[in-house]
C-alpha cells in the first residue's frame, strides 16, 4: 500500500495519520521485537523466533475466531473454554478413536452454528448466551478429561513441530492465516458478512439473509476455535479443561489491538494476527527486561492501553 | 367465565387484565421450584441449612451483581470486566492493612474500598479519554490490576481480624450478616434508581444516549458514578469474601465475573440497557446457588453440574430475553 493509492480516498494531509494508524499493530510488534533482540541478539534467529512465537499460533487462531464474531457485532465469552474442550477432545478421543474424535469436533463446530442461529432467531444478547455456553464447554471438557493428561495425536505434534526451510514455522502460519483471512474478508462473500455487522438493515433490504451471514460467521469461528485447540494440544502434547481460559480475554484484546471495533463490522484480520503475536510476546518481553513474570498480564494490559491511546490521538489528529 | 352470554356491564366495568407479575418474581419462582425439587429428593432433610447457605452465598453475588447491573444498564454492550481484579485486589489490601487486628478493621475497609474506587475512576478516564467502550477499558485495566494483586498479594496468608471474621460468618436475628448488608445495598440502589437525578439519568442514558445528552442530563457524571460504584461494590465483596473465607486468595474473584453478568441478566435487567431490576438479582443469585445444590444432592459429577448450569442460563435467556434487545 503506497501513499498514492491512499490519496484517492481523502485529502493528502490525512494520509500520514491514516497510514500510521493502520501500521500501529505492526509498529507495536516491531518495537517489542527490537527490544528483545537488543537484549538478546541470539533470539534473532530461526530457532529463537520459533521458540518466542510458538505459543502465538493457537492465540492467533482464537483471535481470528473472535474476529468472526465481532464482525457481526457479537462477542464470544466462551472461546477460551471452547479451545480447552477441543484440546481435550484432541488429546483423548482423536488420539484413541480418530473417527469419534473427528465427529466430536464437527459436532462442537455445529453447535457454534446453532448458537448463531439461536442468537439471531431470538435476538439474544450474545454475551450472555456465550457466557452460558462457556459453562457447557468446560463441563464437557471435564467429562472427557477429568484430570489434566491425555496425549496429542502424532500428526498434530508433527504439524506443530515441523521445521520448514528458511521461515520459522509460527511466522509461516501467521502469514498464511493473516493473508487468508484478509482475502476472505475482502472477497465478495466476506463483504456480505462484514456488511451484516456494518449495516444489517441495508443488507436485509438488499435481499441477503442475515441469518445465513450470522450462522456462517459462527461456523467459521467454531472451526478456527477447534483449530486453535488442535494447535495448542500439538504444542503442549497433553490436554486440560482449563488450559485456554485466558484466551477469551486475550482474543478480544487481540482483535481490538489489531484495529477492530465492536460495532459496524470493522475488523482487520492482519492487524488481529499482529495483535495476537504482540500479546503473546508480552511474557517473553518481560523476561528479557528482567521483570518478574507476575507482571506478564499487566504488561498485556499496558500494551493494550498504550496502543488504544495512540489510536485515540491519531483519530483526533485526523478529525482536526 | 367461559360462556357465550354477553357479559353484563358489571363484569366489564373493571377491565380484566391478564395477571402481570413483576419481572423479578420469575427467577424467585424458579429458585423456589429448584429448592422444592431438592427437598423432595432429600426427603426434606437439611432444608434450614440449604436455605441459610443459599442466602449467605447469594448475598455476595448480589453485592457484585448490583454494580454490574448499573454498568449493564448504562448502555448496550456495556459490561464491567474488571470485577474479579477489584475483588482480588481489595481482598488482599484489606487483609494486609487489617493485619489480623480488630482495631484496624475500619482503616482496612477504607483502604480496600479506596483502591477499588480508584480503579473505578481509572476505568472512567480510559472510557472518556480513549473513547473506548467500557468493556475494553475494564478489560485493559483488569489485566493491570490483576498483575498488581498478584505481585502485592503473593505469599499473603493473613487471617482476618477475629471480630471481622465473626461479623462475616455471623448472623443477626437468624439472618446472616452478609445477607443483611446485601439487602441494605439493594434497598439503597432501588431508591437511587427511582428517586435520584443519577438514577434517572442512568436509565435515560441506557435507553438512548443521544437523547439523554440532548435533554441535558448529566451523562458524564452518571458514567463516572457508575464506574466508581461498580468497582466499589466489587471491592466490598472482596473484603467480605476474605473475611468470610478466612483470608484472601489471588483467584478468589475469578468466578464472580461470569456470575455477576449471569445474575444481572437472569434477574431481568435488559442487556440492551435502560432497564434495571435490582430485586431480580436476588432471585437469580438464589437460583444459581440452588441449582448447584440440587445437582450436588442428586450426586452428579462436576462436569454435569457445569453443563446443566450453562444449559439453564441459555434456556432462561432464550425464553425470557431477546426481542427488546434489538
Describe the protein's architecture and organization.
The complex is a heterodimer of chains A (about 325) and B (about 325). By secondary structure, chain A is mostly helical. Chain A is about 75% helix and about 0% strand. Chain A has helices at about 5, 15-40, 45-55, 55-70, 80-90, 95, 100-120, 125-145, 155-160, 170-185, 190-200, 200-205, 210-235, 245-255, 270-290, 295-320. Chain B is mostly helical and about 325 residues long. Chain B is built from 14 helices and two strands. Chain B has a two-stranded antiparallel ribbon with strand order 1-2. In chain B, helix 2 (about 25-40) packs parallel to helix 13 (about 280-295), helix 3 packs parallel to helix 8 (about 175-195) and helix 7 crosses helix 11. The radius of gyration of chain B is 22 Å and the shape is globular. Chain B starts with 8 loop residues before the first helix and ends in a 6-residue tail after the last helix. The relative contact order of chain B is 0.19. Classes of the chains: A mainly alpha (about 325), B mainly alpha (about 325). The interface between A and B is large, with 47 and 50 residues.
Amino acid at each position: 500500500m503506497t501513499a498514492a493509492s491512499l490519496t484517492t480516498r481523502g485529502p493528502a494531509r490525512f494520509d500520514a495519520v491514516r497510514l500510521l494508524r493502520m501500521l500501529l499493530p505492526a509498529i507495536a510488534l516491531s518495537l517489542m521485537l527490537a527490544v528483545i533482540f537488543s537484549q538478546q541478539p541470539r533470539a534473532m534467529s530461526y530457532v529463537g523466533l520459533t521458540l518466542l512465537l510458538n505459543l502465538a499460533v493457537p492465540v492467533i487462531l482464537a483471535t481470528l475466531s473472535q474476529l468472526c464474531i465481532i464482525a457481526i457485532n457479537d462477542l464470544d465469552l466462551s472461546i477460551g473454554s471452547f479451545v480447552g474442550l477441543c484440546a481435550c477432545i484432541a488429546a483423548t478421543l482423536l488420539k484413541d478413536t480418530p473417527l469419534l474424535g473427528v465427529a466430536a469436533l464437527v459436532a462442537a463446530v455445529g453447535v457454534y452454528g446453532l448458537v448463531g442461529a439461536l442468537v439471531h432467531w431470538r435476538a439474544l444478547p450474545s454475551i450472555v448466551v456465550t457466557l452460558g455456553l462457556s459453562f457447557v464447554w468446560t463441563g464437557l471438557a471435564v467429562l472427557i478429561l477429568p484430570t489434566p493428561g491425555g496425549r496429542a495425536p502424532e500428526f498434530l505434534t508433527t504439524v506443530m513441530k515441523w521445521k520448514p526451510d528458511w521461515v520459522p514455522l509460527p511466522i509461516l502460519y501467521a502469514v498464511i492465516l493473516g493473508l487468508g483471512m484478509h482475502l476472505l474478508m475482502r472477497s465478495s462473500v466476506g463483504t456480505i458478512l462484514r456488511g451484516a455487522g456494518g449495516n444489517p438493515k441495508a443488507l436485509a433490504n438488499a435481499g441477503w439473509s442475515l441469518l445465513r451471514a450470522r450462522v456462517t460467521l459462527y461456523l467459521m469461528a467454531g472451526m478456527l476455535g477447534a483449530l486453535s485447540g488442535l494447535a495448542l494440544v500439538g504444542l503442549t502434547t497433553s490436554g486440560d479443561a482449563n488450559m485456554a481460559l485466558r484466551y477469551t480475554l486475550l482474543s478480544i484484546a487481540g482483535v481490538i489491538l489489531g484495529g477492530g471495533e465492536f460495532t459496524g463490522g470493522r475488523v482487520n484480520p492482519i492487524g488481529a494476527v499482529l495483535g495476537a503475536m504482540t500479546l503473546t510476546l508480552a511474557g517473553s518481553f518481560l523476561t528479557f527486561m528482567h521483570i518478574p513474570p507476575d507482571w506478564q498480564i499487566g504488561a498485556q494490559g499496558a500494551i493494550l492501553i498504550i496502543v488504544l491511546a495512540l489510536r485515540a490521538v491519531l483519530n483526533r489528529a485526523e478529525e482536526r | 367465565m367461559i360462556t357465550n352470554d354477553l357479559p353484563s356491564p358489571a363484569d366489564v366495568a373493571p377491565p380484566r387484565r391478564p395477571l402481570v407479575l413483576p419481572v423479578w418474581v420469575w427467577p424467585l419462582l424458579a429458585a423456589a421450584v429448584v429448592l422444592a425439587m431438592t427437598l423432595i429428593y432429600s426427603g426434606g432433610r437439611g432444608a434450614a441449612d440449604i436455605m441459610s447457605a443459599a442466602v449467605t452465598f447469594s448475598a455476595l453475588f448480589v453485592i457484585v451483581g448490583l454494580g454490574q447491573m448499573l454498568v449493564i444498564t448504562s448502555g448496550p454492550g456495556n459490561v464491567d470486566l474488571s470485577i474479579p481484579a477489584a475483588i482480588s485486589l481489595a481482598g488482599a489490601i484489606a487483609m494486609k492493612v487489617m493485619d489480623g487486628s480488630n482495631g484496624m478493621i475500619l482503616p482496612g475497609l477504607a483502604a480496600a474500598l479506596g483502591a477499588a474506587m480508584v480503579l473505578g475512576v481509572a476505568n472512567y478516564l480510559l472510557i472518556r479519554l480513549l473513547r473506548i467502550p467500557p468493556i475494553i477499558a475494564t478489560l485493559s485495566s483488569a489485566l493491570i490490576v490483576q498483575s498488581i494483586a498478584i505481585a502485592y498479594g503473593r505469599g499473603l496468608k493473613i487471617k482476618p481480624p477475629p471480630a471481622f471474621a465473626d461479623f462475616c460468618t455471623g448472623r443477626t436475628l437468624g439472618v446472616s450478616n452478609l445477607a443483611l448488608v446485601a439487602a441494605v445495598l439493594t434497598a439503597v440502589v432501588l431508591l437511587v434508581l427511582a428517586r435520584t437525578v443519577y438514577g434517572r439519568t442512568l436509565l435515560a442514558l441506557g435507553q438512548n444516549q443521544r437523547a439523554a445528552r440532548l435533554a441535558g442530563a448529566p451523562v458524564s457524571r452518571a458514567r463516572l458514578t457508575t464506574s466508581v460504584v461498580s468497582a466499589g461494590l466489587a471491592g466490598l465483596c472482596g473484603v467480605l469474601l476474605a473475611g468470610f473465607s478466612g483470608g484472601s486468595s489471588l483467584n478468589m474473584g475469578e468466578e464472580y465475573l461470569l456470575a455477576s453478568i449471569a445474575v444481572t441478566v437472569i434477574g431481568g435487567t435488559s442487556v440492551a440497557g435502560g432497564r434495571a431490576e435490582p430485586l431480580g438479582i436476588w432471585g437469580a443469585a438464589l437460583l444459581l446457588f440452588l441449582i448447584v445444590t440440587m445437582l450436588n444432592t442428586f450426586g452428579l459429577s462436576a462436569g454435569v453440574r457445569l453443563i446443566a448450569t450453562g444449559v439453564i442460563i441459555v434456556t432462561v435467556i432464550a425464553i425470557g430475553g431477546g426481542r427488546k434487545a434489538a
